[in-house]
Sequence to fold (111 residues):
Amino acid sequence: MTLTRSIILFVAAALFEIGGAWLVWQGVREHKGWIWIGAGVVALGLYGFFATLQPDAHFGRILAAYGGVFVVGSLAWGMVVDGFRPDRWDVVGALLCLAGVAVIMYAPRPA
Fold:
């Protein structure tokens, strides 16, 4: 259950961080205004909250592993929201990032 919980928390954190950054981007670069920017700031705050709920207690480990989730999530967001089409190198890089997440977070460690 801890593995499932950890993965769900990573996905939720990615949705809030990437979504928040996208909202700020829309507010500033696409001139959609302060409401979009404010919603983005709130979403970014929620990202930080979800990151603290990870079962592992090591901040550096969580954020390092989350970096790989962020890479994959950003490519997926771009595909779904902006019509971005990753090339094979994007996909290879994303898979390498997920492998890094697995090693950092879920490799067996002595108790």
